[in-house]
Amino acid sequence: MRRRVFLGVIGGAMAWPTMTRAQQNVVRIAILSGDITAPHEEEALLAGLREQGLVEGRNLIIERRYAHGRLDRVPEFARELTELKLNAVIATCTPTTRAAQQAFGSLPDSTPIVMAAVADPVGQRIIASLARPGANVTGLASQADDILPKKLSLFKEVLPAKATVAVLSDQSSDVHPNMWRTMEPLATGLNIRLVQVQAGRKPGQTSLPEAFDAAARQRADGIFVLSDEPFFFARRDEIVALAAKHRFPAFYGLREFVDAGGLMSYGESMRTAYRSVGRYIGKIAESIKPRDLPVAQPTAFELVINQGTAKALGITVPPALLALADDMIE
After folding, report:
1. What is the pLDDT of residue 108?
2. Class for the domain spanning 7-143+268-298
3. Cα(65)–Cα(78) distance, rounded to whole angstroms?
């Protein structure tokens, strides 16, 4: 079962036509990623660029800088990119967007930065507002924080009546502390007890296996993995394997975790997000300033359930929840 997922933006600005730019005008962009962008995400980006008349190897040059989960290398990559004459930089998440801002500056005439999916960019002071982002940053804002109530209520459907849920957060995250604070009152209303377990990528921080061991010691009935951090996305296979090892039902914000064997997810389609990035690049290539391009938010989300994982955990997913699923993996 699949339903198409679309992204909307204030004022309908995403309904941009295919470009008719002269083929001799070569556009040069960069992708700055804390992970290695998943193949389907890059395919979606390239498709979105083609819709704007931009074809790699013909009138488009792409500089790829992937940190493979080594976020300490992202600032170095960003500084390296400043030596190139770029039309725009695609930043895939909060840490890469901040690194790009620090390297390229944040003045209106600085190199444009296009966000692929950043949680609460206004609250994080990355942009001034969704409608008028200001300066040189535009793109797509995820609603990972706004849909937390929905995520937790969906997870509740496969948990015991009085459940303890371990919330896995990144120790270095700028957005996870606020997500944690948002979840606490929501959990009370659902009769869920939350415990926080943290993991980090820096020396001296808690490892992922240690975080899962901590959840087990606190007798968690499930794991809720917070979104918008490349560290977790880069280590999604390990996170899914640890959940299976401890026999934890686990809830994620992106379907890529469920494709890797996780139980269930609810969130935006990253394919759709990356394809939409191409539209921003197209407008910037037409000399439209980022400050004049409203930041988009997803208007639809997908619920994905892995029935094979549910069976392995001995979980019977309620029929009503199955009926809501946009996709089921057997």
Report:
1. 82
2. alpha beta
3. 8
